[in-house]
Design a protein that fits this description.
Layout (H helix, E strand, L loop, with lengths): L2 H10 L7 H10 L4 E2 L2 E2 L9 H13 L17 E4 L3 H4 L7 E4 L1 H7 L6 H21 L4 H8 L13 H21 L9
Antiparallel strand pairs: 1-2, 3-4
Helix pairs in contact: 6-8
Length: 190
């Protein structure tokens, strides 16, 4: 029996209340969530090596600005931030990660970003990084995570900003709301 069969069995028995939309979102993003009384075991280890490599290469090809401070990101002082906290999504997929100064990442910790301040910056950063990676012919293995947010995320240099950004937003906004509903606080960048 797969883990999803167990989840659906618990729902059918009435032990767990959950909306169909949340089930679909969980399956699409391949994230593990706490579901009422049914908790799945979290991965024990994060693996940000590929993300660090990806963003280091992007920074070498084009200067980028930190989405939280509007300051240039330095190769000497950056860490990888989970836009939606790792403690909620429990994955290290590239589409949820961004380079940020180490001090900012520590300050944000497992808090949610303010979408009105940072979502557009985050999505546009990813669009430009994705386009740079395609232009510079990065390994498609590094970019595979983007396919999971939409079937439209084909590896084409012609993908429009609007299509890319809307697909990313459509994945991040519900995750942000679910995390907020489960008690994750919103970070105030001071």
């Amino acid at each position: 029996m797969t883990i999803w069969n167990s989840v659906f069995d618990e729902i059918r028995k009435g032990k767990v209340e959950i909306s169909f939309k949340k089930i679909v979102l969980m399956m699409i993003t391949k994230c593990w969530y706490s579901i009422a009384t049914f908790k799945l075991e979290a991965p024990q280890k994060r693996d940000l090596k590929d993300a660090k490599t990806f963003w280091s290469r992007i920074i070498k090809f084009t200067p980028i600005v930190d989405i939280y401070t509007n300051r240039p990101v330095s190769l000497d002082d950056f860490s990888i931030d989970h836009f939606i906290p790792w403690s909620f999504v429990l994955h290290d997929q590239l589409w949820n990660l961004a380079p940020t100064p180490k001090a900012i990442n520590s300050s944000k910790s497992d808090k949610l970003p303010q979408l009105d301040l940072y979502l557009d910056k985050f999505c546009n950063l990813h669009y430009h990084a994705f386009k740079t990676a395609l232009t510079k012919q990065f390994s498609t293995k590094l970019l595979e995570d983007y396919i999971e947010i939409s079937g439209e995320m084909i590896f084409s240099r012609d993908i429009r900003n609007e299509v890319f950004v809307n697909n990313l937003r459509d994945n991040l906004i519900p995750l942000h709301q679910l995390a907020f509903n489960q008690g994750f606080p919103v970070w105030e960048n001071e």
